[in-house]
């Protein structure tokens, strides 16, 4: 599976941004999908995940209520809608595929995509 993330950019604090991840190769629907992020000098952290069916989602406490993860399996695309962005949300955002939502939260990733940079100015 190849995962291609896009949609990052420079925004101001309080703005919204949507990043996307397009998958190719094995059927997208076979995997739970997730987003991670890594800021300079920090470890990569879990952000959000969604089950293969789209029914179950999970979020890091720091983004709960502001970010929404969704997927369109017909388009092999994963989305992360980010609202009320804060400077501390600035990072490289990575998409990932895994077996289950709880596994992704534990960083048990089967496939990583490349990242897309999100910069938030204060």
Characterize the structure shown.
With 122 residues, the chain is mainly beta. Helices cover 4% and strands 52% of the residues. It contains one helix and ten strands. Strands 2-10-9-4-5-6 form a six-stranded mixed β-sheet. A four-stranded antiparallel β-sheet has the order 1-3-8-7, with no helix packed on it. The termini are far apart.
The helix-and-strand class reads mainly beta
Low-confidence stretches are none
Shape annotation: globular
Mean pLDDT: 96
- Strand arrangement within the widest β-sheet reads 2-10-9-4-5-6
Approximate helicity band: under 10%
SSE order, as H and E?
A: EEEEEEEEEHE
For the terminal residues, how far apart are their CA atoms?
Answer: 37 Å
- The helix tally amounts to 1
Major sheet, described briefly? 6 strands, mixed
Query: Number of DSSP strands?
Result: 10
